[in-house]
Amino acid sequence: MNVLLLLALLRTSECWWAGQKAIVDKLGKQEFDVDAEELPPVVSDSEASIGNTSDEFTSTKSEEEHRQRILEREIDTKKVKHDAEEIIQQDKSYQETLRNLKEQEQTQKDKPTKVLKIDSIEALCSYRLSEVMGENAKLWEEVRDWRSTSEALRKMLEEEQKKSSQLASQLEVREEEMVMNQADTIKLLKVKNKNLASKVKECDCNLNAARKDL
């Protein structure tokens, strides 16, 4: 992978150098064209007085156009020079990156990495598959344990519900018995209360009789 990247960068660097050379050649040609062109001769006052007004206007206009073309070419030349400088800086960056890649490649050559063979990869995959299957079997065993535990808990819950129902029915019977016992006790207490009242009354009568005898 690094070798392919290195070749791609080498190809890119060659393209950049070719583009840089073309730009430099273009700059030299433009500078030569600008230097080769000369301004038209300036017409003196005496010669201008001899010529007519239309010739003066035409000469001035052509001179201005020529100056404008030279100015535009100078601007284009500066722009091309600026672009060329940027390309040179980019090429320096590419060269630095290329140098770093070469150093990395040399380091990898000095310390080669171990490459697994096909049979080693197959053995590793088989071993990993057996591990996964073992883990899967353990998970299924845990699931079965959870299911059995859940079933046992469900049965215990049903038994507890039955016991609760039995206790509730027993409690109802016990409450009914207690109510009946309370009613019987109240009746018995009323009878005893009447007997005690009659005895108290009898004692009062005897006490009054004894007082009269005294």
From TrEMBL:
Region annotation Disordered: where it falls in the sequence: 45-67
Superkingdom of the organism of origin: Eukaryota
Presence of the UniProt keyword Signal in the record: yes
Keywords: Coiled coil, Signal
Residues making up the signal peptide according to the UniProt record: 1-15
Any coiled-coil regions, as ranges: 143-177
Protein name listed in UniProt: Uncharacterized protein
Gene source species: Guillardia theta (strain CCMP2712) (Cryptophyte)
